[in-house]
Every structure is written in C-alpha cells, then in structure tokens.
Amino acid sequence: MIPPRRKPKAFDPDPDAPGQLCAAPGCLCPGEYRAPKSRTNLRDFYWFCLDHVREYNAAWDFYKGMSPGEIEQQLRADTSWQRPSWPLGRLGQSRMDETLENELHAFTFGSRPAPNGPPPRPAAPPELREALHVLHLEWPVSMDEVKTRYKELAKRHHPDANGGNKASEEILKSVNLAYATLRGKFLSQLAPAAQPAAE
Fold first, then answer.
1. Peptide bond connecting 126 to the previous residue in cis, omega within 30 degrees of 0
2. Which pTM does this prediction carry?
3. Is residue 32 in a domain?
C-alpha cells in the first residue's frame, strides 16, 4: 500500500530554492525561503533561512514611501485587477432589459404618448448608464446634481462613518468611480474646441 503523501506546511522550504546560502549578512544557513526585493519588481527575490525570512517579512511594508493618495490609487487598482470595474452583473442586466424593451416596443405599432402627457425622457448615453445607476440619478442630469448626490453618498458610505465596514467601503469605491466617469463626461463637453490659428 502506498503511504499517503504529507501535505506541505506553510513553513516548509520552497522547492524552487536555488541552493544558495541565506542572503542575510553572516548567515551560513541555506536560503530556502524567498522574499521580494521591492514592490516594483515582485518577481525578483532574496533567499533567506526561515528565521531571517520571518524577520524580513515582519519589517516589509509594501506602501512605504507612498502618499495617502498613491496608497488609495494602488488599493483601487488591486481590487479591480488593475482595470476599472463595475459591480458584477449590473451592466449586463441593463443591456438585457433594454433589448427586451426594444423587442416589446414593436407591439405598440407606432403608438405615441398622449398629447397632454410629459415628453419622454431622452435615453442616457450607454457609457454613462451604469454610473447613473450607481448614483441613483436619471438622465438628463446636471453637474450640480451629480456633485450633490456624490457628496451625500460619499458621506453615507465613508469608512469613518461605518466603523470600517467593508461593504460600505466597496460601495464607496463604486460611487467614486461613477462620479469620476460622469465628471469626465461633463469636462469633455465643456472643453473648448480647437480654434484655427489666426493668419
């Protein structure tokens, strides 16, 4: 009977160790545990013995030397795998609802709203629909309305107001991204068109 294989433990030596001595000065133990040399190159390693890798890891600070803004930017990028992201499923659902609505509209046979009724609201640009949904706004909307709603939601979901609640923190990230999307759209519309140089 084949004996069961022992499950490796977290502190077992790295099987890919290069067979060299510990990188700590004066240590003659084998370097069997790797540790990244810097946050900018996480695939370049020092090799330490168990005691020295524990010491190195205890002193390691990925965010050392970064400003609060840079730390926030890094955290946002890490939570979305280094690319902008929306809550899963919402965008696809809105597209499906829109497709179904368009299909059902074929059965109205060109009927129009009552003459005395309010005119239909214009549809929001596709790239802004998810941001509007996150901020609970309807199109058309002014930048003042966007700012007011952003401040309200940011205050409501700020970690300091929720005892560090992770769910509120995730909602705040979505609110920040939605605000940045809408703000960028308004700024691009306000940018003056390039004027030809005077003769």
1. no
2. 0.38
3. yes
